[in-house]
Write a structure and sequence with these properties.
The protein contains 14 helices and two strands. It is mainly alpha-helical. Bound molecules: 3-hydroxybutanoyl-coenzyme A. 3-hydroxybutanoyl-coenzyme A (3HC) binds next to helix 2, helix 4, helix 6 and helix 9. This is 1,2-phenylacetyl-CoA epoxidase subunit A.
Amino acid sequence: MDKHEVAFNDLIAQDLKIEPRDWMPEKYRKNLIRQVSQHAHSEIIGMQPEGNWLLRAPSLRAKQVLLAKIQDEAGHGLYLYSVAETLGISRQELVQQLHEGKAKYSSIFNYPTLTWADMGAVGWLVDGAAIVNQVSLQRTSYGPYARSMVRICKEESFHQRQGFEIMVQMAKGTPEQKEMAQDALNRFWEPSLMMFGPHDADSAHSSQSMKWKIKRESNDYLRQKFIDRTVPQIEFLGLTVPDANCKWNEETGHYDHSPFNWDEFWNVVEGNGPCNAERLEHHKKAQSDNAWVREAAYAYAQKTDISAVA
Ligand code: 3HC
């Protein structure tokens, strides 16, 4: 083993961070680009389902809060694209991979947001699941990725709380509002659990990602952590968990649950979900409609690039 690999393994073993200038195995770099780019794409595509309700928010305050959340997501995406760029790939390449279907984004964003209660379910469940996953990623071995998670997690907490506030208003509102809240929970419960990825036994990347401490806890561990903290919230809302087998298991100290519908999961991941085509088309149109903004920014950066002048 050459000295670079020894030094790399040593940093990982000591729980120290790998920085952009450090030597790293090419497969480590590629794995990180894969995961970080999908994380960034998820943040940006994830703005679409919520953007769908921006002009229909039920009050000015609701609109302000939703707008603030959506703007945060854009910032998270830019943060994570910048992390990916430290690994030697350009923003343009990342976007091209997304448009060519070579890069994924989280399957959860391929479901439609049909009612205002969905804005609650998305903030509460989707951002709630993202927090469980991202708090763990604050300890990922790649320095820029770990540091980006610290700020992102702080903002996700606001997202989760704004979603839960909507769910409380709906669940404690009129019978029709409570029904809308239950319907949103029914449609987003299992897709949110799928955000944690396939079972550990079926996870292509987990074992290597755990060895390199890219992933600090397993898909199933984090999924169970999310289920255990969310079921009591569902009970507080007076709603029903959309899984008759979801019961507290005194022996394991966790909630049991039904088997997941992995056929649906892979069907959505492979591009056949309710909104996959719409999400990509919207992203492509936004990219071409706003090309002039990027061109102007690049031109300005060149004109005012002091380092080039010095
Ligand atoms: N949607 C789409 N693809 C998924 C997926 C999902 N929910 N879960 C897993 N996959 C894909 C993986 O990308 C991998 O495919 P690939 O080889 O083409 O990349 C394949 O399924 C096998 O899964 P693995 O478990 O082996 O993959 P990972 O080790 O990468 O684990 C993960 C999956 C837990 C999602 C991990 O990639 C991760 O932690 N990613 C960072 C967090 C993230 O991307 N979250 C997405 C939501 S972001 C968000 O919600 C923002 C919030 O503000 C709303």
